[in-house]
Predict the 3D structure of the following.
Amino acid sequence: MSEAIALLPTRTRPIRTKILVARGQGQLSDTSNTSAFDSFSTLSFSTMTASNRLPSNLPNSDEQTIVRDYFNATGFDRWRRIYGTTDEVNRVQLDIRMGHQQTVDSLLAWLDADGNLAGMKICDAGCGVGSLTLPLLERGARVSASDISEKMVGEARDRAQAQFSNPNAASNRPALGNVDFSVQDLEAITGRYHTVICLDVLIHYPTEKAASMIAHLASLSEERLILSFAPKTVLLSLLKKVGEFFPGPSKTTRAYQHKESDIIQILEFCGFEAKRKILTSTSFYYSKMIEAVRR
């Protein structure tokens, strides 16, 4: 699931959070801070669990309810059109479609270049309508595809059935047996995977919540974690601010941009290092994708 940075009149508000900060040996106290990543960065490494995971109960969990409700209601029809092939999209939506597809194509080019995708166990976290899941199945990967939105998962399942249920195409028959679709929150995903992928999801969550999500995804990955996010730059922040002067009917969830350095720091904290990066930029779609491998 993704949103376009320049289109987001999201009525954002300052984020005030309460988190646990280590004081001394094993003592914890509450603190408040308006800076999302400052809050995360003050979380002492000594508060991590034995499995080296960030606490999963960081604030702003109401964002998940907002995202779920949006993509099960008005957002579903909007983004199904954008991620589809219908001509019933406006110029902006078409631009977003092209941008998202460029991100998917760039990721597939990385995986194709590696030459070992067939049989690989992959988690597609936030699969949406299956824009990535389906081409992964075409290439012989074994995919666990999940999304917080029941409607999105239903659409992805329908598209897979339509594409791979042709009895006359022998190469298609194994594909449906290689995918498991489920409706669940990102932090409820379980299992172990060679590669965990999460495209265009982190835009819906503030950085301290994204940190918790990334840590959970990292705990599922044996080798590699691939993320995309809306990069926080001066220009994109200005575009987003301009959009706030034109509040129209509610079209979107809140949009959160993330500094690349923050995402890198979270990945490193989870035991990963960045290997490949790419920025996709169209008129109304901006997404930075990072492939991180386990150290």
Residues 5-294 form a domain with the Rossmann fold fold (CATH 3.40.50.150). DSSP finds ten helices and nine strands in the chain. The beta strands are 17-23, 27-33, 121-125, 142-147, 179-183, 193-198, 221-229, 272-281, 286-294. The longest strand covers residues 272-281.
